[in-house]
## 1
Amino acid sequence: MQVCEHQIPRLLAIDDSELIHRLLKSRLRGERLEIHAAMTAEEGLEMARALLPEVILLDIDLPDQNGVDVLRELKTDSTTHDIPVIFVSGSTDADARVRGLDMGAHDFVAKPFDMAELKARIRSAVRICLLIKMLAQRAQIDGLTGLWNRACFDQRLKQEFAEATRYGRDLSLILCDLDHFKTLNDDHGHPFGDQVLEDFAEILSSGRGGDVPCRYGGEEFVVILPDTPADEAMIAANRYREAIRNMRWEEHPDVQSTASFGVADLKCLSEVSTEHLVDAADKALYQAKQQGRDRVCLAGQSDQNDLKLSA
Amino acid sequence: MEERARPNEGSQSDAPLLSEYAGDADMVELITYFVGEMNNRVQSIEKAWQEQDKERLRDYAHQIKGAAAGYGFPQITDSAAKLERELNEEATIADLSERVEALIGLCRRATASPDGK
């Protein structure tokens, strides 16, 4: 869940002059940058969308389409609008610079370049880009547990669902809820309740690499299991179930916390959609609660598929 | 100026114009490329001028202005900037002619190494 800072930042130069491309590639060789270059506005927009570079150096005086229009397109496209754009111009026209900055450009450099200044401005833009990425990621993480939050879950589920239906792959969901959590909070206090939530989140995070554990809300959690059929998801859910029931806390050695689990996969749905998948897992979870908690239930099945392993 | 001065004839205005970065080992290859391209560039400018294609002439001037100083030729950038400005200001043919000649003269003198190669 870390921003990929190990990656070498990529710079996309959109400039109609081959001389400038060569100059940049050579003069920026010492910088920690991977340099890509486009000659036209069209090519530049295409590369920006495909590459999603950390910084764009845009010549505002492009021939086929004014650089201002490219900037406008970059800033209106949701996939590219967070990429810092440094626009470059040989003109000394202050109006153009003001317009560019007001349209959302990060910075401006004059052509011909002062190389030391250009390098510093690029470094500054890359820093901003990494901060934006970090903030965007923070906004998707649940503050208490460090798991992906609900908004992120909705988004990830859509992605994984699209992939699974497109390539005919399995996709399972585990929806789970800590049992009697309100009582635990009331009896032992909220700080301890938070501790249990954190520990349960830790258990859910220690699953298989490709699984996506999220906090659904309150004491409810959800794990997306791409490329996984229901029987494997049941095994994973039972592993989580045992881990939480076996957990003990030094400050409250008498406490045993359990959780109930509802599992659903695409095959058990009458109608295939993300909403139906969540709904099916939710019904299975409800069933697990109804049957006495501390168990795993599979969607679309009755009591015989209650795969509770221990009494 | 009916007869355009030819490079390397030894007169003051024909003296080779050495890149400011000629001593920078990292830059030599780049400057050599830039200078090597000059002939084509000069021909393009001459052609655009003969055809009185001011649009193209402005593009060339603009490009050279943006690049030359980066390759260590600020004089060429200055000269191209003046030409571009006069093209924008709709200067007279006579004035423009002088600017074009000046720019071409400088471009022809550009060199990557002190021995004028």
Note: Chain B touches chain A through 20 residues (CB under 8 Å).
## 2
Amino acid sequence: MIWVAIVAAGIGCYLLKLAGLSVPPRVLERPLVERVADLIPVALLAALIAVQVCARGHELVVDARALGLGVAVVLLLLRAPFLVVVFGAALVAALVRLA
Amino acid sequence: MTDAPLDPRERSAIIRDSLGVGVATGAYGVGFGAVSVAAGLSVAQTCALSLLVFTGASQFALVGVVAAGGAPISGALTALLLGTRNTLYGLRMAPLLRFTGWRRATAAHVLIDESTAMGVTRETTEAARVGFLTTGVSIFVLWNLATFLGAVAGNAIGDPRRYGLDAAVGAAFLALLWPRLHGRRNQLVAVAAAAVALATVPVVPAGVPVLAAAAVALLAGLLTRGEPA
């Protein structure tokens, strides 16, 4: 199933890119379409964060991952590079679990 | 848009800047590789994602949904929804790049946030092509190499939770979301989407909460008609 999802996502994402370069701009360049397209990444990423950090199966829990996310917020406010943010959050979560 | 030839010094400046962005972005691939094997994908599946999907947020989304126990197809759908922004980048880039035929088909694969950013500000077609292609191709090569390294390293260290790699996924999404949190509307949409996702976690299959949150974007787009972004 994972392979099917990988190939489907690969083909779909490629076609979305190609469509942008090929479709006459007027077909898609409407204010509503542009607004929704701008907001979709915001909504999806926010939802992915919430699920990734708080869900364990069908339960909501607060554990070391929440602390990791807090560390990520601080690092982003300090304008740390992407990899520092990602691995900084991992390091703190790992340390908390050791304690 | 003009066909004016590109001054050699301007060309090297564009190439230098684009390679800088390419190296910095390509290195994220290590994070993706490690996170993907932590989610339970094999090294081969992880590398296939970087080769075939090649748009970071979509790749992280697919493995994030799988890591949360969601159906892989929910992950693929989430990846596609996130991939729609590349279509808009394409609309903006098409009149600048003016590629046709196999060049357009090839260029489409490296149409992502960073290549668009490094191409969209140029004044001539040649300058736009140099910025877009240098950035896109250097990221493609480095992102795939880094993915492989991250996946192999992630596989070698054993239980990913011991190293906090499950916490790294949330941090990666936050880092991708961060630059989009400008403006009141975007912030409200982010909070509402997170709330919808959390509220639906106990009652629907894994993977569906994230898709449900996409409805918030649709609703907000419909309701904020006419307001400045």
Note: The mean pLDDT of chain B is 89.
## 3
Amino acid sequence: MLFNSLTFFVFLAVVLALYYSNILNWTNKKRMLLLASYVFYGFWNPPLVILLWISTVVDWTAAKQLFKPDMSAGRRKAWLMLSLCVNLGFLAFFKYGDFLLENFVSLVNVLGMEFQAQPMDIILPMGISFYTFQTMSYTIDVYKREIEPARTFLDFALYVTFFPQLVAGPIVRAKNLITQFYEEKRATAEQFYWGGFLLTLGLFQKVVLADSLLSGTADYVFEQKEVLTTIDAWAGTLAFSGQIFFDFAGYSTCAIGIALMLGIILPDNFRYPYASIGFSDLWRRWHISLSSWLRDYLYIPLGGNRHGITRMYVALMLTMLLGGLWHGAAWTFVIWGALHGLYLVLERIFKKFISIKIGTVTGIALALLTYFLVNISWVFFRAREFSTAKQLLGSMFFMDTDGKELLNYFEIFKVGIIILGLFICHWIMRNTSVKDVAQKQNPLVLGVFWAVMVFLICIAQGTGEQFIYFQF
Amino acid sequence: MNLKKSFLLAISLALIFLAAWEIYLRSTMKSVMVIDDNQHLWAVQRHRVQDLTKDDVILTGSSRVLFNVQLDVWEQKVGRRPLQLANVGSSPLPVFHDLVNNTDFSGTILVGVSPGLFFSTTFPQAMPWEWPQSRVDHYHNRTYAQRSNHWLSMPLQKSFYFISAEEDSGDDSVDLKAIVDRQTWGTRAIDSFPTTGNFGDIEADRNLRMTQLCATDTANARTIKNFWMAIMGGESSRPPDINGTTNFFLQDLEKFTARGGRIILLRSPSTGPIRAKENERLPRTIAWDSLVIKTKAPAYHFEDYPGLSGFDCPEWSHLSGPDADRFTAALVDQMIADGVLQTNK
């Protein structure tokens, strides 16, 4: 079920009505939320709910066993491995099955053996990368004795399946979410209205900015087989950078808003990333729940910065390579991750030798440089094939002088204005939040802004295009 | 922060904005079309195939079957309403292939033969094939969420003009994306290929009629004529694949007739330069007579029956609503007279 669909609004109305009715006690409200979450997921593909159930049961059981005080270290490790194998096994099969097979075939062919395999054409379960990472974090935290297992199976099942963030995050840690289920939650009136505002803002980002204003340009440019002019190539890449931000941040904003309408608080997932000064800053602002997951469960276990500089760089590169692969089963995503790893390594080397005092001018200059480099990486992220990425990068850097003019002036202007607005907005909002800004506004001004967003969402309606991050 | 105040203001203002937008659209829209002929609408009809009996008829083909065969008239004469599965600008072969291979329907399938589309291609990525195939694929892969979205959207589509986004961001679409996409400045990268705009109004069961504007306004019809000429005269128009398409169709037909199914071939009228172009590129002997002989099916070419000929297509390719009524009545009468169709009345 998509947030930007009529079905979801009917679904949400029913859930809220039941949640705030007096006919259910807290346990039954949680049961209702759990059932609603399965319905939410099952409306896309009912049989794949079974994967959620398996993941839930395995991690619930593993955590219970891991917490037993008399369990030997070996057995604890075995339970942890079981959980990791099941979750990573799901990912490996459903997400990387075809990719692994393709690469295996290529490898044996290179070795001179003739071998062909039929593609498995496996359906990618929506949001599998998100919920598997979420449940794994739970088991690992229990293994490390950083948290206690959930008090009841219901609390844990709801943690795995909570519909606002089930399919595209934020990836919430158990300590931040499960504990919220222990006591009855009701949104205050202000929380409820603010949740509604965030839901509107998220839908506006997704439906109006990403789908209606930017996706067409990005798709048009990236589907070209011909060489383009520099301005067209840049317009397409910038359009994609805006599209993916509005699409994903929009989803997270919706998720946070919907949860808040239920009185549940989810963490921020984006903090104005396109005004980042450097890549360490970027990864503290972009998809925060994933980057902190990768930091805690991959980078630090790989040694982090505890074993010297070389080991740290290796850990950083490995983390970003796997982070790239997390986004999709293709080598273009690996290159995207490698580029970000390289950016992070170079930034650290750079910082060792040069110290820059960040003022307004240097800050904007460095933010623009960061955004420029981010856009280079987006080319690999969006291009389906290396040939497309190579061609587009060639066009962007004046390597092809007689490229095709693809976009009309209005389209170029449209992308330019939106991206400029996006950058300025991120820069201004760098050290604040939507809520802080809204609190300073006259309620009438906020109401007009809210009304314009609702109006544009309604006239944009469209075909309910899927959120980009659902496929990850 | 007084969010309740902001919320109430937002809802009130948004309703005023939407009402103003709706009034503006109603005062300017050329069509009475409120329902979008999209993949969801098609899938609902395709789903009904499972409930059909041997006495039922399914209509397949391209836009000429959609415009020219009027379901109300057919139902009045026969006593059963046919199922409309034709698609604009499409080869009927992917839909026929789906009906033969993925259903156990053994009634009658009327196949519209618009020569330029029927004999166009079997190449999966070619537009006349890809478009109907995408609808077939959508039917088989649609999710419960997509079904319920469509079901919930139908009352809204029927009530409000502003909810009429077309699947292909058509020239008359009033959703934000289509409006923005239509904006151009200067001469850079302007697509000068003519467009048709919407000239048919569709109902929930996909019964389609030509708009009054197209039927009566020659200027409107002229824009559509320009589009046809650009398509048919363009250098990019591919040569037809008569053998490939015929063989593909015959294979499916053999399977369909083996289980008791029957087909009826229908060649609808065209006039003016379109007719001349069709005769030049795909003359009747190649693009009709030969197919009729190979299929041994009941076949109705408009030239062969006085009741089916003599129509004036406003934009050379489709019949106006009243003419479509007369055409359908004559066609059904003829089929009943020939024993091809039984009346249940």
Note: The mean pLDDT of chain B is 90.
